[in-house]
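To whoever is on call:

I kicked off a structure prediction for a single chain this morning and the downstream step that reads the tokens threw a length-mismatch warning. I double-checked the sequence; it's 142 residues and nothing unusual in it as far as I can see. Pasting both halves so you can look.
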Amino acid sequence: MESIEQINYLKVPVESVYKALTSEEGLGQVWTNKLKVKPEVGFINEFDFDEGYITKFKTLELKENSKIVWECLASDEEWIGTKVSFELTRKDNTTAVLLKHYDWRERTDFYRWCNYNWAMFLYSLKIYCENKKGLPYQERDF
């Protein structure tokens, strides 16, 4: 099984990062502005990237200001059954976000492309949390 791991450091309190990763407002500014999200274990979050299908992640775990785990139920075929986690740790005035996208069946070109896109996700999260303006999918030109 393959795994993507990315880390970024945000100069904001951990509470701000957790809220951004668990709310429609936050994920709408960071990832895609077409979504349905609730911060509830068992809820199936929906994300639309204008690709003809809805990406669905079931929330498996929520540890306030510490950890979020999703399982992909619907999306591109390579994503189905994979999991995404966000582990948050605070040191002084900085929050580290460790993103893991794991349980990939194999390392493919799509896997590699997603690796790049998760880095862009973390960049968008950083600028949203630090500057209140992210870079959702619909506003990207790269």
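Update from on-call: the warning came from a stale cache, not from the record. Cleared it. Sanity check on the structure: The mean pLDDT is 97.
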